[in-house]
Amino acid sequence: MKFRKSLVGLALAIGSLTMMSAPASANMTLKAADVHPEGYPNVVAMEHLGQKLEAATNGRITLKMFPGAILGDEKAMIEQTQVGAIDILRTSLGPVGPVVPEVNVFNMPFVFRDEAHMRAVIDGEIGDELLAKITASPAKLVALGWMDGGTRNLYTKKPVKTQADLQGMKIRMMGNPLFVDTMNAMGGNGISMGFGELYSALQTGVVDGAENNPPTYFTQNHFTVAPYYSLTGHLMIPEIFVMSKITWDKLSADDQALIKKLAREAQMEQRELWDAKVAESVAAVKKAGVEFIEVDKKVFYDATAPVREKYGKDYAELIKRIEAVK
Ligand code: GTR
Questions:
Q1: Does residue 36 form part of some domain?
Q2: Phi then psi for 296, rounded to 5 degrees?
Q3: Predicted confidence pLDDT, tens digits, the chain (326 residues)
Q4: S-S: 86 plus which of 34, 80, 260, 320, CB 3.0-4.6 Å?
Q5: How many other CB atoms are there within 10 angstroms of residue 269's CB atom?
Q6: Which among 89, 239, 281 is the best mutation to test ligand 1's pocket, defined by most ligand atoms within 8 Å of the CB?
Q7: Does 17 map to a domain?
């Protein structure tokens, strides 16, 4: 009898607890993915988003991170996110271009004056509009926020100071025809290749170089096999984190709003971690003997004008608005 009473009590207690927290979406563990390793700013910011989400929902929604490209390269992970096999993906905007062509405006060479300009654009109205366009596109992705990808510079096995030095060199670019066109216009020979294959391609001389921001150049150990870093600054590609539309539709409106709020916080947190990581990476590769080479950026800017014309022609109005951002 006593036992039965306490069972009833327990059931009542559970019942009222459930009523109190009124779970709108069922329990779920979000599978998050990134090509970067544990400890990289983007991965850390995403993990913090997960911890906050877990706390705010009393453990109802948790996040499990799959870093270091264990779920594939970005093209493959975008596809997995579209079908709901990955719930949240942090990716460069580069490989999103072939899926949502409009984002290619941000992927164009020298479209931003400098990093401050790029940040003002992604943090502001235009950044919000582009996220909304990704979400509204048929890609089945819900764009949650931006992350900083800094400035991409050229790195090679032999020093490059001028366009002539770049002649005939095979340079790995991300999977998007825009980037191959960019490298070809700069004077090199653009080769589209997945991120995961790059280290050994550099090591064995399948390619003569690649291009990326200092944190990637450092953490992927590319500096050990391509020790010349030419400050071309040709691309400043923002990164995004997106949720699968399939997952998004399973969430209640309250949970969606919570995730949006935490996404903005993650965007701002990554920014701070990013700046520290850039400084650390530059110092580390210099210490390891990497030579930083100043180049005449104007030459590369002029050489890539046809790429901006080709990919920007349908977005003239948007480009004007980007230029007008202070
Ligand atoms: C990095 C970026 C990655 C990936 C990589 C690449 O800067 O953070 O998302 O796109 O570049 O070159 O493939």
A1: yes
A2: -85, 100
A3: 444 445 444 444 444 444 444 456 789 999 999 999 999 999 999 999 999 999 999 999 999 999 999 999 999 999 999 999 999 999 999 999 999 999 999 999 999 999 999 999 999 999 999 999 999 999 999 999 999 999 999 999 999 999 999 999 999 999 999 999 999 999 999 999 999 999 999 999 999 999 999 999 999 999 999 999 999 999 999 999 999 999 999 999 999 999 999 999 999 999 999 999 999 999 999 999 999 999 999 999 999 999 999 999 999 999 999 999 99
A4: 80
A5: 18
A6: 239
A7: no
Range of the domain at 214: 151-236+283-324
Which residue ranges have their beta carbon within 6 Å of ligand 1? 35, 74, 91-92, 94, 149, 174, 195, 212-213, 216, 239
- Helices of type H across 154-304: 163-166, 177-186, 198-204, 214-219, 245-248, 253-287, 297-303
228 backbone dihedrals φ, ψ, rounded to 5°: -115, 120
Distance 92 CA to ligand 1 centre (A): 6
In a shared domain, residues 34 and 80 = yes
**Closest residue to atom 9 of ligand 1, CA basis:** 92
Whether residues 229 and 100 fall in one domain = no
Nearest-angstrom CA–CA distance, 122 and 188: 30
Does residue 160 share a domain with residue 77?
no
**Same-domain pairing of 92 and 216:** no
**Looking at ligand 1, which residue's alpha carbon is closest to its atom 11?**
212
Tell me the three state secondary structure of residue 34: coil
Query: For residue 267, what is the domain's CATH number?
Result: 3.40.190.170
Q: Are residues 313 and 176 in the same domain?
A: yes
194 CA from centroid of ligand 1 (Å) = 10
Q: How many whole angstroms from 151 Cα to the centroid of ligand 1?
A: 11
Candidates 77, 92, 234: which one to mutate for ligand 1, based on the most atoms within 8 Å of Cβ?
A: 92
166 and 73 in one domain? no
Dist. CA 87–CA 105, nearest whole Å? 26
Q: Are 193 and 212 in contact (CB under 8 A)?
A: no
CA of 93 to the centre of ligand 1 (A): 9
* Same-domain check for residues 96 and 191: no
Q: Is residue 289 helix, strand or coil?
A: coil
Number of structural domains in the chain? 2
Residue 64 lies in a domain: yes
Centre of ligand 1 to C-alpha 27, Å, is: 32
